[in-house]
Structures are given as C-alpha cells and as structure tokens.
Amino acid sequence: MTRFPTSTSCIAVALATLSAVAPVLASAQANSAQAAAAPRAIAIERGPLGAAIARLGRQAGVVIVADPAVLRGRSTPGVRGRFTAGEALARLLAGTGLSARPDGDGGFTLVSGAKTASAGGDDVPSDITVMGNRAVTATKTDTKLTETPQSISAITGEQIAARGAIGLQEALRYTPGLRTEPNGVDNRWDYVTARGGFPAAQFVDGMKRADISAAPRTDVYTFERVEVLRGPSSVLYGQGAAGGIINTISKRPEFKAAGEIAVQYGTFDRKQAQVDVTGALDANGTLAARFVGVVRDSGNQVDFGRDDRIALAPSIRFQPDENTDITLLGLYQRDKAAAISAYVPEVASVNAPAGRRLSRSTFLGEPGHDYYDTEEKSATLLVTHRFSDAIRYSGAVRYSRYKSDNGTVNLSVWSGLENPFIDAANTQIERTVFDFRSRVNMLTTDHNLTFDFATGPFEHKVLVGIDYLRSSAHTDYAFGTAGPIDIYAPVYTGVEMGAFDAQPRQVASQLGIYVQDQIRYADRVTLVLGARRDRARTVNEGVDRQVDTVTTFRAGLIGDLGSGIAPYVSYSESFQPTLGLNVYGEAYLPQRGTQYEVGVKWQPTPAILASIAAFDVKGTNRLQTDPTNVNNQIQQGEVKSKGIEVEAAWTVARDFTLSASYAYVDAEISKATDPLEVGAPIPTVAKHSAGIWGEKSLDLGGDTGLRLGGGVRYVGPTNELAVYQDDAGGSVVDTQRTPGYTLVDALLALDWKQWSLAVNATNLFDKTYYSSCSVRSACGTGYARTVIGTLGYRF
Asked: How far apart are CA 326 and CA 348, in angstroms?
C-alpha cells in the first residue's frame, strides 16, 4: 500500500520541482526579453479588443498581460500592415482608454490611462506578453490566481479549440488531478472525477446544472472558458461531492460587431456548422446581442453510432452606464445519440486469449434500441451593479427544463461470474434491456453583495450572499428482454419491452446563506475565511420528506515571499445529502468531505505561472451493507485520497507556448464494514498521470501564419478490488488491473487574413487502450483516432 509523504516532504518536493523548472523558465524569460522588434506582417480586423490582443500575440510572437474584466466590452478598429509589436499594440489600443505599461521583465501589462507604448517603437521593449491570471470561481470575486489559496485552473476557448476537444471532458484532458472519460467512449454525458474518484459537480455561469443523466453534454463552442476548482467547495456552492467544481463561463455579447462562421468535417463522417456573431444594437452602445449556433450530423466509433446536435444560444446585454451590466442568456439544445457506450466484456478485451479481443467498433446492443436523446431549454439572467467603489451587487437566476429518453441493451456481465458465456464455444452472452425517461425542471438563483473596506492596515473584501435551488424530477423505468448474442458474429434479434413504471416525483430544494472575508495585509498576505449554512429538503411523492441542515467552513492563507513565490495553506469542506431511510425508518446523514491543502504558486513574470499542491481529502458517511442485517445499509464507509499536483504554463519568445501538468493520487477505502475492502484502491483512479502541450506560430509572410501544436498525455494503470462469496459461503478477493496508456494529440493550422484552416488530431497514432476495467465484468473502450478539419472565416 502506497503511503503519502509527510507535509514536510511534500514541501521539499515542491521546492525541488520548482527549482528544477526554474532554469527552463528563466531561459524562456531571457529569450522573451531578447525577442526581435523588427517589423512584421500584422493583420487584425476590427472587433472585440480581447480577441484582437490574443491575435496580436499569435502573429507577433509576443505576450501581453491583461485583466479580462478590463478588456470586456471594449473594441478596436484593428491594424493591418508591417509594424513592430509595439507599433501594432499602440494602434490596437487607440481610443480604448487603455495603455501598455512595462513590467520590468520585457513584458507589458494593459492598464487604464498612463503612457501608451510608442507607435514609433523608441519606448517599446523587445517583447510584449499576453496572458490571463484571474478567476472568479474560487472566491466569487475577481481575484488573482496568485492570491487564491486553493488549486484552480482556467482553460480558455482558444485552448479548447487548439487541442481538438469536442466535449467538456475532452477539454479537461490536460488539467491535473482530474480523471476524464473514466468509462471510455460514452456519448451520453461528460463524467469527470477529481482528486481520488470524487465526482466533480458541473456548473454553468456559477449555477448548478441538472444531474448529467438528465442533461445533454455541454457544447464547448458556446462558452468562453472553463474554470476548475479542485477539492470540497460547499461554502460558496452548496451541496456537492468532494471532487470540486467545474464551472463553464458562457459567451456574452460584445459591443463591437464581430463574428465567425466555420464548417467542420472529420472522422466518423462528422459534419458540423457553427456560427458566432455579436455586436451593438443601438448607436449609443448600451445594447448588444450575440448569437451562437451549432448544427452537427455525425457518427461515432461504434457501429450504428450517432452523435447529432442542434445548439442555439442567443443573448442580449444592456449597459445603461459604467456601473450596471444586465445580460440575458438563452439556450436551446437537442442531442440525439446512438450506440452510446462501448463496454465490452473483460474476457473479450483486457483478459482475452490471443485472437479473441473484440474490435473497438463492435456493437452488441440492438440497432434502433440503443439511444440517448436529450433536450435542454434554459434562460439565464445575470446582473451586476456597482453602488460605489466600496459596494457591488451580483445576481444570477436561471430556469431550465431538461428532457431525456434512454434505451439500452446491455450484456449480462455485471453479476460477478468468472465466465459470462452461456455456450461451450464461449461466444454467446445473455442480454438485458433497460430504458428510462426523465423530465426535470430546475430553478437556480444566487445573489451576493461585496463590500470593500479597510480596518487599520488590513484591507477587506467581504462577500455576503444567498442562493436557492429547486428541482422537480419525474423519472420512469421500463425493462425488457433481448435474446443472447454472439459477440464475435453479432446477429440482432430485436427486443420485447414492458410498460414504463412511473416513479414518484421528486422535489428537491436547497437554501444557503454564505459569508466570506478576503483579508489583505501589506499587499503581500491574503487570509480567506468563509462559512455557510444550508437547508436541503427532498420530498418524494408518497414518502416522508427528508431535511438536512448543514454548516460548512473554509479557510486559507497565502503570502507573497517575493520573486513571484506565493506559498499557501487551506482547509475546505463539502456535503452531499444521502437520500433514503434505513430499515428502522431513520434518515441518513449527508456525506461529508474535508480537505487540507498546502502548495506554492510561482509567477516571476506575467508570462509564467507555475504551481504545486499537496492535498489530503477524506469522504465520510458512505453507505455500506450492514454486516448484521443484509437488508440494511449503514454509514460506515470512508475514502481517503492524498496526492500531489503540478501545473505550469509559460509563453516563450516568438509565440511559443508550453503547458505541462502532473498528478500523483493515492486513493483507497479507509473504512468499510467488510475488513477485506479496507485498503482497496478506488476504481478508475490512476496513481500517476501527466500531460504536456506546446504550440508554435510562424509568420510565413503575405498575411499568412502557420500554427503547429502537439501534446502528449499519460494515464497510469488503475486497479479495482471486489469481494465475492465462494461456494462454501466464504469470501474471495478478486482484482482487475487496467494497463496505463500514452496518447498523442496534434494541431496544424493555417491563417490567411480573415480565413483559417485547422486540422486537429487526437490519439494521433490510433492506440488501442481501455479507460477502465471492472472485476469480472466489462471494460470501457478508449477513444480511437479522431481527425477534424475546420474551415473558418472571421469578420
């Protein structure tokens, strides 16, 4: 059993890692400061300033630091011709009220007022740097990452597109501490776990979505970025597991006319068209709108597969003055998927004899009765208003309706039999049919006030808020029969379905009140304290209601030691209601999560950001079978997870960007009613995982640029343990190991004026692998090579 190092050794590892990385990053910094200031071809069209600044970085091979909040709502007339980076930057900022301020290390930061970079180039350093370094998910306030005492990662829309991600879980492949696609190919939902197998709750614009089994997969083209807060986070977000928060930020209207139209074609006959158009609706620049649309017709890697989608996201924004911002977001999305998962028996995959391993495309369900159709309709209102420099209000409300219909024919391989075949030739396996349909209505709302004030030498940012969630869910189930199937020579026989069995309607609500204080001392030390009180209520028709009242806390301390080094320590909690009653009619307690985290963040220049964190997470009150009554469940289960995460990103001169991540996770069952389960590893959790991605832009002349990108990601082997009863009534322990795998992704893109042609490849070398395998049951087949070409036009 692997033991986690002590806190002292964790810090030693952190310092050693940063020391090893420092020379490389310092070299990158030196190269950045010496980058050539020679004129080069620059072609940037008028449009949103944020997009123009990012495009300048790519074309000129430089980096510019900008707070997204400063760029938001501003536009630029664009620039075209041969200029130095400084000359082009000055022209982009003309009339915006912003200027570029040297940072002393060869980089620039965009600020309001002050002197602008000289158009003549005399006062312009040899390099300029562009990078975002703030997030809101961790504190619900606009806070620098280096002042946030908890692990948080931000993935931009451009990074998602460059890495060829077609869904949310694919977008997070290079983020440390997360296990994406643990079930392998699965076109139903985005399932992500964090820090030891704990589910990561999915939020959109800071508010919770319906459960993944009731909602369509989030379309990556509809949002600006993803923020991942790792570890328990109930103080700000209410009920949820200990894995953390995945918060997607939707695209918002801009006040300068701009847009993009693109078409895609790729593997499995994937055909997609997408459009993103925004601009002002009035001459005064107070009203703006945006429309994002996606239409897709596609197969998938499994025979008879479908992955079709329509997503329409209109939005409108009203800014009557500089203190008020009101945005209304709409979304309609309909997905139709078939051959929705690729589970294959472990006896015909990872443990198959020679020549008996099934193909990744093998379909063992029934054509026409293997589907997952989902629909989402939602409206979101976001409001911010600044009453003064010291008081700010932020409010959000969303109403959503979800609809899902699922039909599945499964192999009978989940009963723990060592040999699931029913014939002597070991080719035939029984099948079962399970269908469900659900209808969910959800209302979520969150309102808070932020107060900025000082008490002596201490600066306070106090957040006081209240949020409310109410969902009404109605789910029906149906069972049927299907004949056995020869898994090596499938013959489809059809199914016989029974009637749907209506389940009791479930109404769940949660009301939470939270307070947080970010205390800043001497502009170097930040203390974060938070507390929350929740009342969660669940009512099933015909069943007594269940009410849980829970208090959760968080605390964190981070300090600036100079040279960009910021060590921190933090504590956080989570809770998740456990529905149901034991045999004695007593309600279960909520599952609880606690985390201790210690780490170091390092940002010596705006172009470099690195972090290392050691964490210790514990999940308690997990249900277990009562050893004295097999018909009862008791809350004696406990899981512990300890590990280290490393993440680094930096931008080198001549527009070369590099990001890397590594995670070590040791997760196991620490308490169980069956002593044989104590110490068992958590399924699908790899002890080691890592990823590295690099991207280089080249100026080919004639308004033409070339982008080359590539990445390597590694997921180590995983293990699962299960306890079975033998014929004599004793216990038998069986294990299953899933081999690790290394995959390569690539990008090749050509930009010419307003046109772009990009080709993305994931699993470039088409490696066959399994995401995870369960004991005496099945394996989740990994994703085959996918190549997608995108032709786009920006205006």
From this structure: 56
With contact defined as beta carbons under 8 Å apart, do 128 and 60 qualify?
yes
Dihedral sign (CA 103, 108, 114, 118): positive
Buried b (16+ CB within 10 A) or exposed e, 679-694: ebbbbbbbbebbbbbb
Residue 30 confidence class, pLDDT cut points 50, 70, 90: very low
Kindly report, residue by residue over 574-620, the tens digit of the pLDDT: 999 887 777 777 778 899 999 999 999 999 987 889 999 999 999 99
Distance of alpha carbon 352 from the chain centroid: 34
Mean pLDDT of the chain, nearest integer: 87
pLDDT digits (tens, 9 = 90+) for 257-288: 999 999 999 999 999 999 999 999 999 889 99
Three-state secondary structure call for residue 326: strand
What tokens were used for 385?
Answer: 């208003």
Q: pLDDT digits over 729-752, tens only? A: 788 899 999 999 999 999 999 999
- Give long-range contacts, CB 8 A cutoff, 24+ apart: 477-482: 477/434, 477/435, 477/436, 477/501, 477/503, 478/434, 478/435, 478/436, 479/432, 479/433, 479/434, 479/435, 480/433, 480/434, 480/435, 481/432, 481/433, 482/366, 482/409, 482/431, 482/432, 482/433
Distance (Å, rounded) from C-alpha 267 to C-alpha 460? Answer: 53
DSSP assignment letter at 165: -
Answer for the pair 608, 650: CB distance below 8 angstroms, yes or no.
Answer: yes
Q: Position of tokens 């980076």? A: 85
Bridge partner list, 273: 263, 295
What is the distance of C-alpha 234 from the center of its chain? 18
Unique residue bearing structure tokens 């980089």: 107
Rounded Cα distance between 741 and 644, Å, is 20
State the residue for tokens 């009963």.
Answer: 415
Quote helix, strand, coil % in the chain, to nearest 5. Answer: 10, 55, 35
User: Which residues partner with 638 through β-bridges?
Assistant: 671
- How many Cα neighbours within 13 Å face the side chain of 310? 5
Look up residue 423 and give its DSSP letter. S
The two most distant CA atoms of the chain are separated, in Å, by 88
Plot region of 50 (φ>0 → left; ψ -120 to 50 → alpha; else → beta): alpha
The DSSP output letter for 604 is: S
